[in-house]
Write a structure and sequence with these properties.
Layout (H helix, E strand, L loop, with lengths): L8 H13 L22 E6 L2 E4 L3 H14 L3 E4 L21 H5 L6 H11 L6 H22 L1 H4 L2 E4 L12 E4 L9 H15 L3 E3 L4 E7 L2 E8 L4 E5 L2 E4 L8 H7 L1 H6 L4 H8 L16 H7 L10 E9 L5 H6 L5 E3 L20 H4 L7 E5 L1 H13 L10 H4 L5 H10 L69 E4 L2 H8 L3 H17 L20 E14 L2 E2 L5 E3 L6 E7 L4 E2 L2 E4 L2 E4 L3 H22 L1
Parallel strand pairs: 1-9, 2-3, 2-10, 3-6, 10-18, 16-19
Antiparallel strand pairs: 4-5, 7-8, 8-9, 11-15, 12-13, 13-15, 14-15, 17-18, 20-21
Helix pairs in contact: 2-7, 2-19, 5-19
The structure holds flavin-adenine dinucleotide (FAD).
The site of flavin-adenine dinucleotide (FAD) has 40 residues, from α1, α2 and α19.
Length: 623
Amino acid sequence: MKEDRHFTRRKFMAATSAAIATPAVMNIAGAVPEARAEAKSYNFVEKKECDLVVLGGGGSGMIAAVRAAQLSGKKVIVLEKAAFLGGGMRTARTVRTFRSKWQQKRNLPDHFTGYANLKMDYALWMLDPKLLENCMLATGQFFDWLCEMEGAEFEKQFVEGKYVMGDSEFEPIGPQILDTGMSGKTFGGIVVGIMKEKANKHGVEVLTKHPVVDVEVQNGKIVAAIAKSEKGYVRVACKACVMATGSWICNEDVCKKYVPDYWAVKEDTMMGAMDWQIGRSQAGHTNMNYTGDGIPLAEKVGAFLDYSSFCIRLLGPMAMGMGGAAGTMADSPFVMTVNLNGKRYCCEPIAHLGSIDGAHLQVKQPHARGLSIFDRNVLEAALADQKNRTLRAGSGSDMPEMALSGTVDEIIESLKKGGKSGGAPQGAPGGSQGAPGGGQGGPGGGAPGGGQPQGTAPGQGAPGGAPGGQGGGTPGGQMGGSTVPSSYWADTLEELADKMGVDKKAFLETVKQYNEYCAQGSDMELFKDKKYLVPINKGPFFAATSAFNHDRAFGGVKVNPDMQAYKADRKSVVEGLWVTGDFSTGRHTAFNGHKRQAINDLSWAFSSGFLAGNSAADYLKKV
Ligand SMILES: Cc1cc2nc3c(=O)[nH]c(=O)nc-3n(C[C@H](O)[C@H](O)[C@H](O)COP(=O)(O)OP(=O)(O)OC[C@H]3O[C@@H](n4cnc5c(N)ncnc54)[C@H](O)[C@@H]3O)c2cc1C
C-alpha cells in the first residue's frame, strides 16, 4: 500500500545526489506565456511549418518528437525554452521497467499484475487501469526501442536493479545504469543523449531558446505555436501538438493557490533553501524554467486542467544532523518532538510516518521545523533499546545506518562537541564542516555523504558541509545551505528553549505535561506507546533539528491512455493534442496535497513520451 515510504536516508541521499552534483546551467530568463483567450497579433520575425510541434524539449518531449518522426516520417519541430535540451530528465537516475525483452532474456520475475494491483489500491482505484497498463507496458517497450536502436554495447551499460526508492514486494527488477556513483552518468541523461542524436537522424528540427508564449486555436485545435526567440516572435504552423513543458514549481501564483503550505515555508527546505537562495538556477529539483507555461496554453485550447491533481512531493522529515548522534536521536521513538511554538504535533518519532508521508505534517509547522528533545534519561533508554534490538527507530530510518555508538557519557560529550562521533558514519564526510553561518558566501561544501564539490555559483549559498551538532548550542553544522543549526544543547530546559528560539512558556509546559504522561504511563494527547514514554528531566538537554525537502511539482492536463488531452467533460479529447511528463496527469492522485503515484516520474516521462509519439504518428498519417 505504501508508495516509496520507507526509503532510508542513505537511499534518499543517493536519489537526490544527482541534483546536488548537477552543475549550474545557463537558462534564458523565464518568459511566461502571453496566451490569452482573445486573439493577439504578433510581428513575426519568422514563420515555420511542420506536422507536429512539440512544446518543451525536455525528456518526454524529445522522446515524443523522435518517436513520432521515426514512425511517421513527418516534419517535427521542437521548441525549447532553455538553451539546452533534456530538462530535468538529464539528471534522473532510476526507473521501473516492466516486461522488456531485456528483463525477459534474463528470466527476471514478472511483477506486472501484482505491482499494478498494489498501486491501484494505493491510489484508491481513482486512476484509469487502462492508462496504468499502457504506461507500465510502455516502459518495457521504450527500453526495447532504445536497445534496438543502440545495439549490444548500449545494453552493457545496465545492470539488474530496482528503482531506488521502491520497496514493495512487487518491485520490478530491471535495467539500471551500471554507474550509480557521482560521475553524473544517469539513465535519463543517457536517454536525452540518444534522443538528441536521433532527432538529428530523423530530421527533427530543435530550436532552443525558443520559449513558447502562445498558441493559435482554430475549431478547438492548435494550428500554430508562437515562440519568442532572441530575435522576436516565431510562428510555427502545425497539424498536431505535444505539450511537454514540465512542472510549475517556480510559478508563484500557482504555488500560492495550490500548495500554500509549501510556499509559506519554501525557504526552510533543506535543498530547497539552496534552490531559492541561489536564484532558482538548476539545483535540487527545481529549474527556473518550471513556470507552468503549459497551463494557459492548455486552457486556451480547451484541455482539462485537473487542478485536483496539483501537488508537490514533499520529503522528510529529515534530521539536519544526519551524520551524528543528534540525527540518530531525531528518529528515536523515545524523544519528544515540538515545533517552534513549543508544542508537540505527532506521536514521536515523526519519521514513523515514513520519509515522504511525514513531510506533509512537517510542512504545516512554523518554518516546517521539528525539534526532537532528549536528555540523559532518553539517551539511556535509546541506547539500551538498541543493545536489546527489540525496538527499531522510526520506520523512515534503519538501525544499521542510524545506530548510536559509545556509552551514554561518550555520546553526550560528542553531542556537546558537534555530535559526529556519536553516530554511525553516513558515508564519506562532506566538505566544509559547517562553520558558523555555513552555506553562505562560498562555492560549495561537500555533498552530504558524498564529498562531491557543488559547483554552484560563487558567492552563493552552497549546500552545507557535513552536518554536525553544536557546542553549547552555538550554530554550527547545517545542511542544504540552511543556516539552521542541526542540534542544540543546554544544561537547563529554559536555556535550551532560548537557544532553540521556541516559545519558552509553552515549551516548558509541554515538557511538564509530557513528564506527567510518562509518570501515568499514558499519553492521552498523542497516544504514544507507554514503552517509549521516558521523562525528560535529567540534563544535559538536547534538541535535534529536522526539516523537510521536496522534489517536484506535479499535476496538469488530464490525459487518456494514449496521452491525448481530455476536454473538460473528461470523455472526449482535444483533437491533435498530447501531453506528456510532469505536465500530464493520470498516473497519480493528490489527496490533500499528498501525491500518490502509480508509477514513478522518470518511468512516466519515458512511457508518456513514447506513447504520445506512437499515437501522434498514427494521427499524422491520417491527416
Ligand atoms: C535532479 C533530478 C533527479 C531526478 N531523479 C529521478 C529518478 O531517479 N527517478 C525518477 O523516477 N524521476 C526522477 N526525476 C524526475 C524526472 O526526471 C522528471 O519527472 C522527468 O524528467 C519529467 O520529464 P518532463 O519531460 O515532463 O520534464 P522536463 O524533462 O523537465 O522537460 C520540460 C521542458 O520544458 C521546457 N519548457 C518549459 N516551459 C517551456 C516553454 N514555454 N516553451 C518551451 N519549453 C518550455 C523546460 O525548459 C524543459 O526543458 C528527477 C528529476 C530531477 C530534476
